[in-house]
Design goal:
UDP-n-acetylglucosamine1-carboxyvinyl-transferase, Chain; four-stranded mixed sheet; 437 residues; alpha/beta; 2 domains; 31% helix
Length: 437
């Protein structure tokens, strides 16, 4: 999509009666795609990954894997990638890695290469250069990795000189990102001894549960000696898999948010409550708003609240914080205030999302109060405005929802969605056409 702005069509109230549930198909999960790519490199043999997401983030991750010397085949049309792993060994002992804005690539590959024997030059986009890396890099230094920084210590770019594991115990602070822990967990089985990770700080643990589940699917189990102490027994090895990637629940949530917003039923194909992805909890929030939920063979069917209106909610979103923007975007249309708790860490993501939400709602004339970890959004009628996206895909996708019900909402730089859902606005236009006919 080459346009610099996207004018959201206001379609509320719908002119046509939508009797049948709106069926939506979304691409594969970014979080699962990138974890599967790394696990496949660590495994012994050739893995086939099916239902792969192709987006800016996953392409950067794939290019890094290829630049490290791993053999791959790529079929974008069929959404399949094969990767031949070397059982934990990196084929090239020296390489340059550019991770773009992909946080998973930045953290996961840094940990893997930091405990491998070799010299690896790491760089990232201007956006990723601003995001925190210091807690992970500090842990790697404790494991014996030598790190030299080209700019500000604790941030990209830097060079890793790995020497394997100098210790079998490590502490990591996950206050800013759970990816630091996921990164160390995935590569931990390369240690020759039982490996222990002590966790400091707090963060929603849904992505950690995803990491552990996928490690187990590829053959490595983790143990919990306490809620904050992880043990990875020695002698385990990842095995190649024929692996099916789930649809992206984060992407699905934008369409499920149509249910209370527009008063229509939505089914996203093959999204189920048994998903590995924590964002499925967002659907439980919609249930608190009066929506009905049924997990059918084809996917979860969400039906609108009775009476055509929905209440605000008071919810902790630490386990599904990527959807804080989604909830904030529809909250002005609720019949009572909405409070979103446990999301202080979203200040350190692709943008300062707490500030971005407050700023953009403020431009619409919507009152939003901010504390260190919480937001409260009050009902109101959003005024026309251009939404700044801060080069953040979730700002673009989330605040497009507001424009479906309030006229005059324009999304600036919508192409930032290429990070995870490159044709989001094309899909949006097709669905709008369907419900408007």
């Amino acid at each position: 999509m080459n346009r610099s702005v996207y004018s959201v069509p206001c379609i509320y109230p719908l002119t046509a009666s939508v009797r049948e549930p709106l069926r939506v198909r979304v691409p594969g999960s970014k979080s699962i795609t990138n974890r599967a790519l790394l696990l496949a490199t660590l495994a012994a043999g050739t893995s086939s990954l099916r239902g792969v997401l192709f987006s800016d983030d996953s392409r950067h991750f794939l290019k890094c894997v290829q630049d490290l010397g791993f053999e791959t085949t790529v079929d974008e049309a069929a959404r399949i990638i094969t990767v031949t792993g070397h059982g934990g060994r990196v084929p090239r002992g020296e390489a340059s890695q550019y991770v773009g804005s992909a946080g998973t690539a930045a953290r996961f590959l840094t940990a893997y290469l930091g405990v491998s024997d070799g010299v690896y030059h790491m760089d990232a986009s201007a956006q990723m250069r601003r995001r925190p890396m210091a807690p992970l890099l500090s842990s790697l230094e404790d494991l014996g990795c030598e790190i030299s920084f080209e700019g500000e210590p604790g941030f990209f770019p830097f060079t890793l000189k790995g020497h394997g594991f100098a210790s079998s115990r490590i502490t990591v602070d996950i206050g800013h990102s759970s990816q630091f822990l996921s990164a160390l967990l995935i590569s931990s089985c390369l240690c020759q001894e039982d490996f222990h990770i002590q966790v400091e700080g707090t963060h929603g643990m849904s992505y950690i549960r995803m990491t552990e589940a996928m490690m187990k699917q590829f053959g490595v189990k983790t143990e919990h000696e306490s809620p904050t102490l992880f043990r990875i027994p020695a002698g385990q090895h990842y095995q190649a898999q024929d692996y099916r990637i789930e649809p992206d629940v984060s992407a699905a949530c934008y369409f499920y948010a149509w249910v209370p917003l527009l008063g229509i039923s939505v089914l996203v194909e093959q999204v189920h409550f048994g998903s590995l992805q924590g964002d499925v909890e967002f659907l439980k929030i919609l249930e608190k708003m009066g929506c009905g939920l049924v997990d059918t063979e084809d996917g979860i069917l969400a039906t609108p609240p009775a009476g055509g209106s929905f209440p605000g909610v008071d919810v902790n979103m630490s386990v599904c914080s990527d959807q804080a923007i989604t909830l904030a975007a529809i909250a002005p249309f609720a019949s009572s205030p909405t409070t979103i708790r446990g999301i202080g860490h979203i200040r350190y993501q692709e943008s300062d999302r707490m500030a971005a939400i407050v700023n953009e709602l403020g431009k619409m004339g919507i009152l939003c109060r901010e504390t260190e970890h919480n937001l409260t959004i009050y009902p109101g009628r959003p005024s026309p405005c251009t939404v700044e996206t801060y080069d953040d895909h979730r700002m673009a996708m989330g605040f497009a929802l507001t424009g479906l019900r309030a006229p005059g909402i324009v999304i600036d730089h919508p192409d930032c969605c290429r990070k995870t859902f490159e044709d989001y606005f094309e899909v949006l236009n097709e669905i709008i056409k369907t419900v408007s006919e």
